[in-house]
Model the fold of this input.
Amino acid sequence: MVGAPWRELTIIQVTTDEGITGLGEVRMVNKTETLVAAIGELGNRYLIGMDPFDLNKLAWNIQFAEYGIPGEVGQSALAAFDIACWDIIGKKTNQPVWKLLGGKFRDKVPAYANGWYQGDRDPKIIGDLAKKVKARGYTGLKIDPFGAASAELSNEERRRSVSVLEAVREAVGEDFNIFLEMHGRFTASSAMLVAKDVEHINPGWLEEPVLPMDLHGMKTLRQNTHLPIATGERIHHSQELIPFLEAGVIDIIQIDLTHHAGITGMQKLAGWSDAYNVVLAPHNVCGPIGTAAALHFSVAAPNLKVLEHFNDFADPWVSEIVTGAPYVDPADGCFELPTAPGLGVELNREVCEAHPRTFGRLDLFSEGWEKRTFVSNYEKKS
Done:
């Protein structure tokens, strides 16, 4: 477990009887201890002794043989196993993972930056930070300008949030993508007010405008805005998407493969999204191993829009925990095509050990959360 002030990266290494090793990684949202327990229990039950090629059976065991409904913790443990097994499969066959997922659909994967707005909610400060994102070569960024809002925003706070977005738009220009993160904060009526307020900024999408499973709220918003709607980072099984796809209320699916049964789970989801003619923009708040897994999937997925990336701005040292970390080219804001067998990354244990657990977490409804400097008192309590 590698620690940062606001996130912890849980890394597993799986070794076969032939001596091939595979890496998996999950950034659990505020439940790292629970995930570690699940990895131990489910790993001993289903992973140890299996053929790493038998990934559909592994998924079936954890999703159905366990009897409980697939959820955040089980699907995340499965993702860690699945990613590590794909790494093994790639090394065994001497192929990069994307070649085994149907081959190359694109030569480069477009990226957008997150984790860059670690400053006060002041238009000048955030605008200056946005300029640095553009200077780094990105062609898109994501921002939640809403402070610690929950359910509603006062008129004053709405104006403040819009002024921050206006400063970002001025800083990056009209052709730069601004993706508006709403973190499921709002009721449908509040989300509609925000959507109307930001139309002139022309955001690339409204992300999680209402609570993740609020289908009624999504329908209401869809009927009252022309802006694209994105959601999915807190959806853990494809069946949870059915009502939203059937209702036609989402334009972009943002499933996180580290919480959605791994690369195998995302491969299945690609078919679902293609059937409903929506695009994929995978949520990715992981370090370099999870990012590598998302990158290989993205190379092969026909209906990919863009891939999220944190590691150039939030805790950029996390790229050093492996050799071969995925890298966004400053020349065009895209990830290059991986060429090494498997995921193409190898663990640097010394760097991992230099960053022990912080018990940090995402504290979304506290003032200043966007600075990502949360310090946990869990260790003291325990």
About this structure: Residues 72-93 form the longest helix (22 residues). Residues 2-95+359-381 form a domain with the Enolase-like; domain 1 fold (CATH 3.30.390.10).
